[in-house]
Amino acid sequence: MKVLIIGSGGREHALAWKLAGSEQVERVYVAPGNGGTALEEKCENVPAGLGDPASEAGQEALAGFVRQAGIGLTVVGPEVPLAEGIVDRFRAVGLAIVGPDKKAARLEASKVFSKAFMNKYGVRAAGSRDFIDPAKALDHAKDHFSGPAPAPLVIKADGLAAGKGVVIAADLAEAETCLSSFMKDGALGAAGSSVVLEEFLEGKEVSVLAAVSVRPGSKGVIKPFVSARDHKRRFDGAQGPNTGGMGSIAPVPDFTAAAQKDFETAILQTTLKGMEAEGMDYRGFIFFGLMVKNDRCSLLEYNVRLGDPETQAVLPLSDFDFAGLCAAILDNTLEKFPLTWKAGAVCAPVAVADGYPGAYRKGDPIAVNEAALAKTGARLFIAGAEKVTDTVLRSSGGRVLAVSAWGADADQAWARAYEALGAVSFEGMAYRKDIGRESTSSP
């Protein structure tokens, strides 16, 4: 079988690596891919010029490529093509594709829709209100901060905002600035024209990725993967600006069996009930972003795809055929598919370019001491780098790569990951030194 992966980041490199390892898969194409997917065994990037997979023209071109190349399965990495209906378009012409349809993708594409869904079906989550009127939103913020010791206020843009749509306002001035930027100045375009104002939850963040097989008129299934944790702040100790993710670990040591059970009861099962009741066609993956305190879980958000960089930590622990999992999702046999996991832990710190998450350097050659890297057993998942030759990559993005290392326990995984980072270098390379050592607590 030939497979197409849509996307260009570290998540897509990890997916390409995992799918290429399947005996069922003869070739993996990645659109548009990156320097890492171009060099991965059994993988190649699709021809240039097919267009944006989030646009109608790009989706039509990709569908044509799938038919021409005889590709039997497409897996979608990022959220925007899903929100723009690529699954609907592919299925309309009989192409097998893993992901939710456009209707179901609103669980991520619209925070207002998502919160309404949570409330309707009893998914435990932070209390919230949504607004389309800037003045009313500001009045709500004023009321919130009028008490003697108010908690921060979480402000979320309704639409997709490339990770820039959530602000934790510590006081009224910060809230007013954010609301004006989102709703009046159009800093996020249409994504910020309506907002959700949400209570601030304390605890530790945990990510749970899961496989989903739900279709109208039949009983659905959601099967969770091992837990993971992303570290979003740029600097050690969870300091500095938020990023797309500075590294991840799996599983999460402080995510107890009691917390797992609470998650499955209060969040996973209620989500499944809602998907079935809404008649969703959701055959893909979902990300549950949780806040956990005293083994009690609350849902912060849904993502309608696998997380990045969590995927780079979770997939190396998987002990099953990923192509087989995708087939089970599509043919309604997920309930019987065994999700088996390797013992141990993975730590996956991310190396970023100088200046990230602001303006950052590009075009720097990446040097890899292959012998030193092999000694650790770690592997590189490329996010923002392009192929120069068969042995040379150069940086092209803010998050350049993740080093994913397995260990018998979290301590050994951490030690191997940072030893492996020492085998990689490029001008201005930077990374956090506490991935897996710092428990994130910001929503």
UniProtKB/TrEMBL annotation:
Enzyme Commission (EC) number: 6.3.4.13
The GO biological-process annotations, alphabetized, read as: 'de novo' IMP biosynthetic process; purine nucleobase biosynthetic process
Q: Which Gene3D superfamilies does UniProt cross-reference here?
A: 3.40.50.20, ATP-grasp fold, A domain, ATP-grasp fold, B domain, Phosphoribosylglycinamide synthetase, C-terminal domain
Cite the entry's keywords alphabetically: ATP-binding, Ligase, Manganese, Metal-binding, Nucleotide-binding, Purine biosynthesis
For the ATP-grasp domain, which residue ranges apply? 115-331
Pathway in which this enzyme or protein is active: Purine metabolism; IMP biosynthesis via de novo pathway; N(1)-(5-phospho-D-ribosyl)glycinamide from 5-phospho-alpha-D-ribose 1-diphosphate: step 2/2
This protein's record includes keyword Glycosyltransferase: no
Q: Which InterPro entries match?
A: ATP-grasp, ATP_grasp_subdomain_1, PreATP-grasp_dom_sf, PRibGlycinamid_synth_ATP-grasp, PRibGlycinamide_synth, PRibGlycinamide_synth_C-dom, PRibGlycinamide_synth_C_sf, PRibGlycinamide_synth_CS
Q: Which segment of the chain is annotated as a signal peptide?
A: none
A GO molecular function assigned to this protein is: phosphoribosylamine-glycine ligase activity
Q: What class of enzyme is it?
A: ligase
Q: What is this protein called?
A: Phosphoribosylamine--glycine ligase
What taxonomic ancestry is recorded? Bacteria, Pseudomonadati, Spirochaetota, Spirochaetia, Spirochaetales
- Gene name linked to the record: purD
